[in-house]
Amino acid sequence: MVTVMTLGVLQQSLQILKTVQNTTFRDQLRWHITQEKLQTILKDNQIKLVTDDKVVYFDRQKKKSMVIEKYPAGRLFMLRLTTSTNGGHEPIMMNLNKISIEKNRNLVIITTENHLGQKSEMYLSNDV
Q1: How many CB atoms within 10 Å of residue 34?
Q2: Which domain range does residue 112 map to?
Q3: 3-class SS of residue 1
Q4: Cys-Cys with 54: which of 58, 69, 103, 106 at CB 3.0–4.6 Å?
Q5: Which of 102, 110, 105, 111 is nearest to 127 (CA)?
Q6: If 0-12 CB within 10 Å is exposed, 13-18 middle and 19+ buried, where does residue 94 land?
Q7: Parallel, antiparallel, or unpaired: how do β-strands 89-104 and 54-59 relate?
Q8: DSSP result, 53-116
Q9: Three-state SS at 124
Q10: Are 122 and 110 in contact (CB under 8 A)?
Q11: Nearest to 76 by CA among 116, 38, 36, 103
C-alpha cells in the first residue's frame, strides 16, 4: 500500500516537473523572440522620443513614425506596436502587471513584470 502511494506521488511529481520545465522553456523562448524582434525594429530606425511608457521612432522602410508602447488591457498591460497617427496595433507582449521604458545613452531598456511577479529586462541598442 505504501509502495503504491509512493509511486503515485513520484509520478505526479515528475509530471509537475515536466510541465514546469516546458512552461519555463516556452516563456524564455517567447521572451528571446520578442527581444530579437524589438532589437531588429530599433537597430536601423531613428528614435524620436522615449518616455516611461513609450518609444516613438521613425521607420525608414515604412517612411512613418511608429510607437512601441505600454497599453492598458483590463487590469493588466500589453506592450504593443502601433503607428503614431493611424491607429491599429500589433500586440508584442500581453498579460503584464508592469511595464516601464527608459533610455540610457544608446540603450532602450524595457522592464516587465508578468502575472507571476517575475521581472525581466530587455536591453535594446540603437546607434542611429
Answers
A1: 17
A2: 2-125
A3: coil
A4: 69
A5: 105
A6: middle
A7: unpaired
A8: SEEEEEETTTTEEEEEEEEEETTEEEEEEEESSS--EEEEEEEEEEEEEEEETTEEEEEEEETT
A9: strand
A10: yes
A11: 116
* CA–CA distance, 70 with 14 (Å, rounded to integer): 38
Phi and psi torsions of 14, nearest 5°: -65, -40
Contact of 119 with 112, CB cutoff 8 Å: yes
Q: Measured between alpha carbons, how far is 1 from 69 in angstroms, rounded to an integer?
A: 58
Q: What is the pLDDT of residues 6-36, one digit of tens each?
A: 767 677 766 766 666 666 777 788 888 999 9
Cell numbers representing residue 68 in the block: 512601441
Which neighbouring-strand residues pair with 47?
A: 57
Residue 52, helix vs strand vs coil: coil
β-bridge pairing 64-73 and 76-83? antiparallel
Q: Which residues pair with 58 in a beta bridge?
A: 46, 65
What is the model's pTM?
0.78
* pLDDT the model gives residue 73: 87
C-alpha span between 128 and 92 (Å, rounded): 23
3-state secondary structure of 31: helix
pLDDT for residue 108 is more than 70 = yes
